[in-house]
Write a structure and sequence with these properties.
168 residues; single chain; 9-stranded antiparallel sheet; mainly beta
Length: 168
Amino acid sequence: LPILVSGLSVRAEEPENNLKDINLGFAKLDIGGGLRLRFQWQDNFNIKKYTQGNDWFAEERFRMEFNLKFIENMHAFVQLQDARVWGLNFSVNDFYPPYSPYENLFDLRQAFFEFQNFGSTPVGVLIGRQSLLYGDYGVLGPGEWGYVCRYFWDAIKLCYNTSCCKTD
């Protein structure tokens, strides 16, 4: 009988965020991030198949975000991510191509420039490395349960957004 047990998940948040709307003169900067910690015990199951034995391991994901707001509807965003695992029975070479779904040491996850409502029109553009989210993640989107979260693309997204429809 396969059993998956997931334990402690910690998210630290500040009640007052003094790292919002930092005035740089030409723009305002928001700095944010998050830390997730999780312990897992898998009995007769692992990510590759059902198997005999168990696996005990701990995961960590740290994200740091910088949002530079130039004017209303124009900003640049950068998100860094570090995902690590301790005690896992797999190594990076157990996966093909050789990257682990559990660990990705320091990654530029997102880095894009966005400008919405060109000249008061409903047209906008988002250029750079970005997460694409469609259909309540059922069609396309990153699964946030996994700590590595590899679903991002280098893309140019054109947007058309009115009160009656939105399309990319």
